[in-house]
Structures are given as C-alpha cells and as structure tokens.
Amino acid sequence: MRQPILREKEFKQKKGLTYGKYYPTQGVVQIDPRQPERDRFDTTIHEIIHHFEEEFGVDIGEERVVEMAKVLTKAMFDGEGYRRVK
Ligand SMILES: [Zn+2]
Fold first, then answer.
1. Range of 71's domain?
2. 86: CA distance to ligand 1 center in Å?
3. Ramachandran region of residue 31, left (φ > 0), alpha (ψ -120 to 50) or beta?
4. Residue pLDDT tens, the chain, 86 long
5. Could you tell me the distance, in angstroms and rounded to a whole number, from the CA of residue 54 to the centre of ligand 1?
6. For residue 30, which of 3, 19, 24, 71 sits 20 to 30 Å off, Cα-Cα?
C-alpha cells in the first residue's frame, strides 16, 4: 500500500467547483487551500478514499465516496474535534 502524497494547489475554478483532485498513477492528492477547514477535512478524506480505491483495485462509486467522507468528517471533525496543527 502506497502512502498518498498530499499537496496544496489552487485550482482554476471553471464550471463546477473543484476543491480536491486525485492522481492515481502518482498517488497524489491535491487540495485547494481556499476552503473552510471543515470542507478541507472532508475533501482530504474524500480524495484519500479514491486512493484506497486505486490501491485495492476497486471502484465503490462517487456516491459512496461522498458518503464515507461525510460520515468520517462528522465523527472526527465534529465529534472528536480533530483539527490541523498550523
Ligand atoms: Zn470523488
């Protein structure tokens, strides 16, 4: 299992708003820093779940990825109060 590589990048926002991207070949997660902390938490988890999909060779579908990130964010960010150290 590769460790995902997390990087910050300000995306050009065109049509839909994009705050995170995953590049499976390199295992790179890009996060746009211009989002509230809670959104950033959700986005980061979301993209890491895509990394799991890649590493395990499964496709659980975008809806499930969204749901998993939502549940984890609620449990960890809202429930346990996890925050980034700056
Ligand atoms: Zn996604």
1. 5-79
2. 26
3. beta
4. 999 999 999 988 776 678 999 999 999 999 999 999 999 999 999 999 999 999 999 999 999 999 999 999 999 999 999 999 98
5. 12
6. 71
CATH number at 62 reads 3.30.2010.10
**Count of domains for the chain:** 1
Q: Decide: residue 1, CB within 10 A, 0-12 exposed, 13-18 middle, 19+ buried.
A: exposed
What is the 50 CA–ligand 1 centroid distance (Å)?
Answer: 7
Taking the centre of ligand 1 as the mean of its atom positions, its distance from the CA of residue 32, in whole angstroms, is: 14
* Domain assignment of residue 36, yes or no: yes
Tell how strand 20-23 and strand 5-8 pair up.
Answer: unpaired
Stated pTM of the model: 0.93
Q: Is residue 86 part of a domain?
A: no
**Domain contains 84:** no
